[in-house]
Amino acid sequence: MGATVSRTDFEWSYTDEPHATRRKEILGKYPEMKKLMGSDPNLKYSVLFLVFIQFVSIYLVKDASWTSLLILAYCFGGTINHSLNLAIHEIAHNLAFGHSKPLANRVLGMFANLPIGFPVSITFKKYHLEHHRYQGDDEMDVDIPCQLEAKIFVNTFLKIVWVILQPFFYGIRPLFIRPKSLTVLEAVNILIQVVFDGLVFYFLGVKSLVYMVAGSLMATGMHPLAGHFISEHYMFVKGYETYSYYGPLNYLTFNVGYHNEHHDFPSIPGSRLPEVRKIAPEYYDNLPCHTSWVKVIWDFIVDPEIGPYARIRRKQRKVNGVSEVDKSD
């Protein structure tokens, strides 16, 4: 079963998350950073290109052998679907058309969602923005594993299982930890996705549908790109809760590896995040960072000091007896 994790609880912090303070300092010192904020006009073209490639791929694999299909789903289709998931991440921050056109961003997000097979775009947005606002909050930040996950996946073998099952935990956890009412746009997202999946199955067959769905699941589990899920906030160095990665896989992931920069400036699109580091290197060059997402996955699995408990958490803040949860709902 392998080595058992040494942690028996999360790392509890009694200070605020670091990004708001660092953002204020950087903007005071480098006001030109504001020029980087705003939408990325090329994002919609990237989404159109990736979706087009997947549409062609979905058609071409309809008569492939199962072995070839699964290999292609993992290596090619899953990689593109993971990129589309991170395009949806950008779109959730309104970085395609700007904050003045929220509906246009939501429509593009649902379009980017089509090849993924699961309706994720709208639901992701409503939880992800809370992850930014309440990073580490033990009730609001559903990016953090729950107590049950942390208590079950406690050795090398079970951590392998957890990594493979990441897409299930990532998708299902919010529904149990912080359930919310279904919104109209979520219902639309679900309906459009179900209709699209049904059309793929009806006209192209089960293999094309499996190519979509299996690719999405495999590429968010034990896959090089999925290393970013672990690298971003798992505590590899004591006291540090956000980590950047500056390697070549950023070209496939809309620079999500620039994660300290992203949390400091979520209104700056991924295409401009390298400029943040160039403008203010003294704020980033000395922070611990990752050099390989594959190594991140390996270290997470084999290092007994790292596991689902290796996250920084904060008790829910209350102002005048009212919790932040109550204030935000």
Descriptive account of the structure:
The chain contains 15 helices and six strands. The protein has helices at residues 19-29, 43-60, 66-92, 102-113, 121-133, 147-152, 156-164, 166-177, 184-204, 206-219, 227-231, 259-264, 273-279, 293-302, 324-328, and strands spanning 11-12, 244-245, 289-290, 312-313, 318-319, 322-323. Strand 5 and strand 6 form a beta hairpin. The longest helix is centred in the first third of the chain and has 27 residues, at 66-92. The chain is globular. The relative contact order is 0.18.
- Radius of gyration equals 20 Å
Arithmetic mean pLDDT: 95
Q: What's the story with the biggest beta sheet?
A: 2 strands, parallel
In which range does the helix fraction lie? 40-55%
Percentage of β-strand residues: under 5%
Strand element count: 6
| Structural class label | mainly alpha
Summed up, the helix count is 15
Shape: globular
* Biggest β-sheet: strands ordered side by side in the sheet: 1-4
N/C terminus separation: 43 Å
| N-to-C SSE string, H for helix and E for strand | EHHHHHHHHHHHEHHEHEEEH
Which parts are unreliable, with pLDDT below 50 for 5 consecutive residues or more?
319-329
Short recap of the structure:
The chain has 329 residues and is mainly α.
What attributes characterize this protein structure?
mainly alpha, two-stranded parallel ribbon, 15 helices
What's the SSE blueprint?
Layout: E1 11-12, H1 19-29, H2 43-60, H3 66-92, H4 102-113, H5 121-133, H6 147-152, H7 156-164, H8 166-177, H9 184-204, H10 206-219, H11 227-231, E2 244-245, H12 259-264, H13 273-279, E3 289-290, H14 293-302, E4 312-313, E5 318-319, E6 322-323, H15 324-328
